[in-house]
């Protein structure tokens, strides 16, 4: 499967709206240089930063990663058919973030429900900038351990433990163990 080119997609959307990099940066309230760095793939933005940038374009993460609607009406999916949403979002930045992979089942936008298979390598972290978006999300830890922060509540969840919350609450996910953590989650409306 080819890696998703975040920079090329962002540039395509920005140009389609007739915006300069500076105009998009102002609309998204991010530094001007950040747009250039992302578009040239010299910087991999965090999910929170990419959401801010896409907010400046008036599109969702789901629309960003799923430019084409699902025409096939597919119902069943094999592991290689899951859409990798993070191959270019998360990277090992100075050893502090670690590797996080989010794979989506089908076309979330068309059905209004996003189901993800999430893998958190040891040290993986959604970032110090807490996530917040209008949705409801929940998940079950399938293996390993994952520290989940929602507002001022923090808990380390183990295999079989689950979470469910209003996504407007600032939240963060971190693997603070030395083992891989796997989570199956759902979000409605789609977030990524």
Automatic annotation (TrEMBL):
CDD domains: cupin_XRE_C, HTH_XRE
Pfam families, per database record: Cupin_2, HTH_3
Sample GO molecular function, one term: DNA binding
Signal sequence interval, chain numbering: none
Xref: InterPro entries: Cro/C1-type_HTH, Cupin_2, Lambda_DNA-bd_dom_sf, RmlC-like_jellyroll, RmlC_Cupin_sf, TransReg_Diox_bact_type
PANTHER family: HTH-TYPE TRANSCRIPTIONAL REGULATOR, HTH-TYPE TRANSCRIPTIONAL REGULATOR PUUR
Protein name as catalogued: XRE family transcriptional regulator
Organism: Ruegeria marisrubri
């Amino acid at each position: 499967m080819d890696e998703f080119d975040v920079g090329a997609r962002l540039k395509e959307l920005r140009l389609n709206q007739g915006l300069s990099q500076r105009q998009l940066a102002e609309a998204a309230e991010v530094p001007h240089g950040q747009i250039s760095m992302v578009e040239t793939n010299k910087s991999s933005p965090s999910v929170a930063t990419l959401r801010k940038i896409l907010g400046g374009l008036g599109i969702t993460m789901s629309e960003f990663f799923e430019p084409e609607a699902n025409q096939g009406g597919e119902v069943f999916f094999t592991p290689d058919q899951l859409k990798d949403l993070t191959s270019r979002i998360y990277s090992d930045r100075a050893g502090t973030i670690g590797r996080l992979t989010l794979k989506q089942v089908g076309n979330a936008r068309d059905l209004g429900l996003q189901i993800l298979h999430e893998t958190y390598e040891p040290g993986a972290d959604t970032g110090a900038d807490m996530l917040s978006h209008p949705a409801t999300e929940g998940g079950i830890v399938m293996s390993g351990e994952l520290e989940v922060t929602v507002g001022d509540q923090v808990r380390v969840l183990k295999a079989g433990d689950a979470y469910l919350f209003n996504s407007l609450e600032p939240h963060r996910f971190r693997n603070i163990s030395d083992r891989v953590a796997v989570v199956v989650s759902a979000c409605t409306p789609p977030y990524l």
